[in-house]
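Thread: "does anyone have the structure for this chain?"

Original post by V.I.:
We have the sequence but no experimental structure in hand. Need at least a predicted one for the grant figures.
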Amino acid sequence: MAQTRAIRAARSAHIRAHDVYGMALKLLAQHGPAAVDIAAFAEAEHDIRGDRQRKAAWRAVESTVSDMLSRRLPTSGIIIH
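Reply from O.Q.:
Generated one for you, tokens below.
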């Protein structure tokens, strides 16, 4: 049977610095160093789908994870001024 309800357009993603930081921490906790690859995969998926905002958000997560792994960014908390 065909779908009878209209499909609602997805809301645009509004991601903040603490969201990126939290996502990076969770990825690191669950996947360790592989978190960089997982974030890169998610970024590529959104690029293929043409979702620029989510692609940029995952790129930020990938960069944050990379900075955490190289100890340029702490994993114990962040303060944004």
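V.I.: this helps a lot. The two ends are 54 Å apart (CA to CA).
O.Q.: and The chain has a mean pLDDT of 85.
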